[in-house]
Amino acid sequence: MQKQAIFQSKLLPYALVAPQLAIVLIFFYWPALQAVIQSFLLQDAFGLSTTFVWFENYIELFKDPAYFASILRTFFFSFAIAVSSLSFALLLAVMADKPLRGSMLYRTLLIWPYAVAPPVVGVLWIFMLHPSLGVLARYLRAMGVDWNPLLDGDQAAALIILAAAWKQISYNFLFFLAGLQAIPKSVFEAAAIDGARPMRRFWTVTFPLLSPTIFFLLVVNIVYAFFDTFGIIDTMTRGGPGTSTVTLVYKVYSDGLLGGNLGSSAAQSVILMIMVIVLTGIQFRFVERKVTY
Amino acid sequence: MANVTLRNVRKTYPGGFEAIKGVNVDVADGQFCVLVGPSGCGKSTLLRMVAGLETVTGGEIDIGGRIVNQIEPADRDIAMVFQNYALYPHMSVFNNMAYGLRNRGMKEAEVKTRVDEAARVLELTAMLERKPRQLSGGQRQRVAMGRAIVRQPKVFLFDEPLSNLDAKLRIAMRVEIRKLQRRLSTTSIYVTHDQLEAMTLADILVVMNGGRVEQVGNPLAIYEKPATTFVASFIGAPPMNLMSIRSDEIKSQLSGSASEAGILGIRPEDFVITDQTPAGGVALPLTVEAIERVGAETFVYGSRAQDEQRIAATPGELPPGEVIVRIPGTESPAIGAKIRVAVVRNKLHLFSGDGRTRIEA
């Protein structure tokens, strides 16, 4: 099959991709290059002199226990957010897949949270769970829970995970629902006749048939938890209390813009950039080829 | 081993649509029952009700002396073969067949014996480790059959299992299914819209239309004595020619009670091209409009002399006034030729004017 387009002029194809290339170069490669250069530089505290220090920023970073703590924290957050939002979304999707009345309405309602911007999500959850303002916080205290995420690092972390996972549920739900609807109904009927009870049917038929969707969403959710939770963290905890909710992305921001350590911040960005490349690579390698069941 | 009895079975959907309007069918132990009818006649719905995939809103379904209306599909001891096969795409052929056995807690050794035996019968032994997507349509169909037979259920249910296969394979599989069913002598209910499939497979044929049973019986008996004009035109290919008896041309040729009937039916193969008129029979002058030569036989599409309305029993039938005649393949009248065809007395089918009742002359 002929897939290549044939152009009369040699310049036309370049002209056609030029706008796209220009955007990528100006808004991605240029800043990325700047970050790489910056990561090799060290500025004095007043920003008066800059020295080229090779990999010193990186070496410093890997000697810093706080950075390792942040890496571990980010992995834990990503795992917790991905697992909780995926499992809850799957539960909702399986329930919404049943042919019930008004299904269009509640499916639409379940998709809405995705349209809410991350900082707004943060504000919403603060209103519910802020120790002195929050509606739910009151009930928690009434039930005897010593609820104070402003002081308790674990509770703050739980709060971030909760809000970030909640936001991602809609997105996952949408994919799971589409995945479920792509499975022919007769397969479930055959399983029912074959004597599989609903739970067994789910684990032996539904779940394996959804595995390509699950894998795709797992990667998407990890990328989301890594990079897109900044808005939620910034509005809810600003990384606190202490550093208990400082993820890698938040650390780039706080070290660079708040701490003024541009070199280290740039080095951290470069490391993050490599992580994104790896994750995207995994996604393309496996998702494009499709996980086969 | 079980008989299946449907007593006044009804299905009304929440919107008020009545899909099944009271069906009574009795399938004896080991019989092969075929439900046939045009699409939308309720035959698949009825089968799914027997399977337990659709609720029953009226009447009783009895499998082996047990009313199963409220019983889960898994507990009805039935196996079903679906139109799209409904194989589990992520499981190997072996696991597809073993799934229903394992769900019932059968010992793994027994599972293996049963699956291997089924695979041997269906010639799937070499493919047990393959996934469904690596199989051809016919092989998938056989896996679906295998999944049904390993369970050794009381009843097999088939929902148009051959309609996704090409014509040649369909005929081969049709024969296979019949042989298999004979050997296992398991009561079977088979849904199809293909009247040829229905005729060749059935011990007992149920012709359905619009949620009702039009006629039940032995396939040849139905072919020879269709109870309504619907059955007459649905069973048999090409369909029976149906003509109104209002015109003097036909009426004058019929005697006694026959002339009181409303509709006359004649099968295309019962015509003979002749100048004679058999005693008590009917003769028609025709103009040849088209010829179809298929080798062993020739179909002549002729138009009647006068503008006679042919009764359209099912939609999409022949245009009014057209008559199909089947003659041996060696004969071929010229297009535009005037011919005269005749039918003997006992090959005439007579129906009331509304086509709902057969009249025996």
The CATH topology of the largest domain in chain B: Rossmann fold
Strand order of the largest sheet of chain B: 6-7-8-3-9-10
Overall radius of gyration of chain B = 24 Å
CATH domain class of chain A: Mainly Alpha
Number of helices of chain B: 9
Q: What are the low-pLDDT stretches of chain B, counting only 5+ consecutive residues below 50? A: 307-317
- C-alpha geometry of chain A: globular
Structural class of chain A: mainly alpha
Helix content of chain B: 10-25%
Tally of alpha and pi helices of chain A = 12
Report a brief summary of the structure:
The complex is a heterodimer of chains A (293) and B (361). Chain A has 293 residues and is an all-alpha fold. Chain A is built from twelve helices and two strands; from the N terminus they run H-E-E-H-H-H-H-H-H-H-H-H-H-H.
Explain the overall architecture:
- The complex is a heterodimer of chains A (293) and B (361).
- Chain A has 293 residues and is mainly alpha-helical.
- Chain A has a single domain (64-289), classed as MetI-like fold.
- In chain A, 72% of the residues lie in helices and 2% in strands.
- Chain A has a two-stranded antiparallel sheet with strand order 1-2.
- In chain A, strand 1 and strand 2 form a beta hairpin.
- The longest helix of chain A has 32 residues, at 65-96.
- The model of chain A has no long low-confidence stretch (mean pLDDT 83).
- By secondary structure, chain B is an alpha+beta fold.
- Chain B has 2 domains: 4-227, 3-Layer(aba) Sandwich (Rossmann fold); 230-359, Beta Barrel (OB fold (Dihydrolipoamide Acetyltransferase, E2P)).
- Chain B is 25% helix and 30% strand.
- In chain B, strands 6-7-8-3-9-10 form a 6-stranded mixed β-sheet, sandwiched between helices.
- In chain B, strand 7 (155-159), helix 5 (167-184) and strand 8 (187-192) form a beta-alpha-beta unit.
- The radius of gyration of chain B is 24 Å and the shape is elongated.
